[in-house]
Amino acid sequence: MSTATVTVTWPALGTTVGLVVLGGGHHAAARRAVEAELAEIDAACSSFRQDSELAGVNAAGGRPVRVSSLLQEAVAIALRAAALTDGRVDPTVGRALVLAGYDRDFAQVRGSRLRRIRAGHVAGWRVVALDREAGTVRVPPGVRLDLGATAKALAADRAARRAADAGARGVLVNLGGDIATAGDAPSGGWAVRVADDHRAGTDDPGQTLRIAGGGLATSSTTVRRWQRRGGEAHHIIDPRTGTPAAEHWRTVSVAALTCVDANIASTAAIVLGAAAPEWLVAAGLPARLVGVAGAVRTTAGWPDAGAMGA
């Protein structure tokens, strides 16, 4: 049985999609499955589409809105993320993101007119009412949900499973650094590279390692950045201040059983700052943290760069 892989890439969700299929068979069907999943996630969870289900919830003025099972799942995961991190990853940061300047697709943000960074009030995740029995979501007037901290990782997990269900023996899906796997792995595991930027080449600073399964996520303050009056801004909001998180780590990569869990932890670590390594150790999560000046720290069995390739 072939252990070769077929890799295809294409743009989607404002990032680059990488699909790796073990054995090469069913790669066309796997790509169609991933494309279908990403289209559904975008229609449900996008903060930048006026016709998305999430936009309807935010515009409802405090009324409950009946939504799809997919958006219910995405909101439930965002609330779970908030509970697991004591609110450090919070889906009610949407207004704070807008006030920081991230109010449209990132390609447009970078070229937009400079505005002063302002602190945005974060209502807190407990104001979100998800009724799974009624199939509704409600937020108070003025609260803007943003699922950017978890929805892309959810898309990676769901897309990998869907590609495997389409016939792929083994599959890896990479959505701009959010990585999920399903099915069999190649001999020795899936080769992945972690770096400040998911577009980095093998000659750029980073680390190559192999994973047998599960998920891996990288959160970074170096890629989605833009100039604003008063300084630069990035897209990871500290709910305690309503402004971009203080930059102690420029990149955090975490491995976990799912991409969602890895992403929750990597995002929380950026917000936690100096306290992140202790928090990750307590959670038993292997992680690689890169400080602003480039110093690397690892936790909980993350492989040495020398052992896995630098």
Strand order of the largest sheet: 1-2-6-7-10-15-16-17
Low-pLDDT regions: 104-114, 306-310
What is the level-2 CATH architecture name of the domain at 48-138? Orthogonal Bundle
Structural class: alpha+beta
Q: Into which percent range does the helicity of residues fall?
A: 25-40%
And the CATH topology of the domain at 48-138? T-fold
Oligomerization status of the protein chains: single chain
CA gyration radius, whole angstroms: 19 Å
Can you tell me the CATH class of the domain at 48-138? Mainly Alpha
Question: How many β-strands, per DSSP?
Answer: 17
H/E element order: EEHHEHHHEEHEEEEEEEEEEHHEEH
Strand content: 25-35%
How widely separated are the two ends?
31 Å
Bulk shape: globular
Largest pleated sheet: 8 strands, antiparallel
Q: How confident is the prediction overall: mean pLDDT?
A: 88
Fourth-level CATH superfamily of the domain at 48-138: ApbE-like superfamily
For the structure shown, list the relevant keywords.
about 300 residues, alpha+beta, T-fold, eight-stranded antiparallel sheet, three-stranded antiparallel sheet, 9 helices, disordered C terminus
Descriptive account of the structure:
The protein is built from nine helices and 17 strands. The strands form five sheets. The chain has an eight-stranded antiparallel β-sheet with strand order 1-2-6-7-10-15-16-17. A three-stranded antiparallel β-sheet has the order 3-5-4. A two-stranded antiparallel sheet has the order 8-9. It is globular and about 55 Å long. The model is unreliable at 104-114 and 306-310 (pLDDT under 50). It has 310 residues and is an alpha+beta fold. Strand 13 and strand 14 (243-244) form a beta hairpin. The chain has helices at 27-45, 53-58, 69-84, 94-100, 106-109, 151-165, 259-272, 276-283, 305-308, and strands at 5-12, 15-22, 65-66, 129-131, 136-138, 170-175, 178-183, 190-195, 206-211, 215-220, 225-228, 231-234, 237-238, 243-244, 249-256, 287-291, 296-299. It has a domain at 48-138: ApbE-like superfamily (T-fold, Orthogonal Bundle).
